[in-house]
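Q:
My hope is that you can spare some time for a protein that puzzles me. I hope you can help me see how the letters and the tokens relate. Thank you; the sequence and its tokens follow:
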Amino acid sequence: MTTTHATARIAARVAVAASCAALVALTVWAVGTASTGGQAWNGDYADVRGLISWLLAAVSEPQYYVVTAAGAGLLLGGLFAHLAPRRWAGFVQACGSGIWPWVVASALTSFVAGVLLWGWTLRYGPWQPLFAPLVAVAPAMVVLYGPNLRTCVTAAVSGALLTPPASILAVTYLCTPWHLPPVVGATTGMWTSALVAFWLCRFLPWMPAPGAWRDAPAGAPPVTGPLWVARRALADFSEAQFFGNEWASAAMLLGATLAYLTSPAQLAYGSGLFLAVLAAQAVTALAGVLIWRRQWRARGFYPTFVPVVSVAPAAVLACGGTAASVVLGALAGALVAPPLAAAISRRLPGYIHPFVGNVASMSLSAATIVPILTHIPGVSV
């Protein structure tokens, strides 16, 4: 039995190492064969180069960048942080668990499988929330149930099957008729599909008890000084993808900036508002960490990243990038979204990962704050 378990562990480590190597090779290939902005893809599976470039660009879609260089930067930055000596690695990725290879492997597998299953929906419109599995069921399930092959596969399959159709339906039948930001529908699909997936896990005999694998004692409360505040605000840029690391965020932002310098019209869904989106995200990240740092100190984690990928950029796009929309959207998001996310997460049963509360807060906060801002005189263009 011991030999069997040892063989399984070795095989799993080899699979994870191979996945990391494939990730690096794929990233280098895609960046070398495409522009920093990426290529359009309309659901044609025969267009392999366009599909791969589109996939890499969509890795940064939660931040509204959607360019190849930003997606590549995020993945390579996360890999660097995972391999770097602990002193220089920054915040531990994957919700502080350190199982980044398992989390990113499951998330990417779920994302690619979801696109292969549901990419045909792009034929009926220029955009669908196909990026959703990357930041939803798959990574959350691996963090909750642990780093093993059965959990990884179950998480990837669940996310690919459930999250894209739920998000597509929410965007189509909730956002479009009610004129709500698309992020409301995308995140609604994330939390509804996650509730179904985690509920089903209770009846799968091969799934371990939730959280049983992670029995390490809690670390010391963070020292929330000025340097920590700056680092945490930067790390929040990549928390949506379960990275939450300064190196990953910095590499992603560097890639986005390079793409902006070469082709500014491609970022932020072609709106030309990348700088306004980035400014709003920076303000809401810094304000959120400053406002809620006592909660960080008391709890060890607080979802201050929530408005970075929801209220702040959505307000900028909805209001045309005015200075008022940047400031008001950022501050309103920082004040409302994190405590709402924490309140919802605290009320979830133990078999559901708290990310459900975070994305539910994204839905509710964006659905209320953004429409209000659009009706305030002087905020919209």
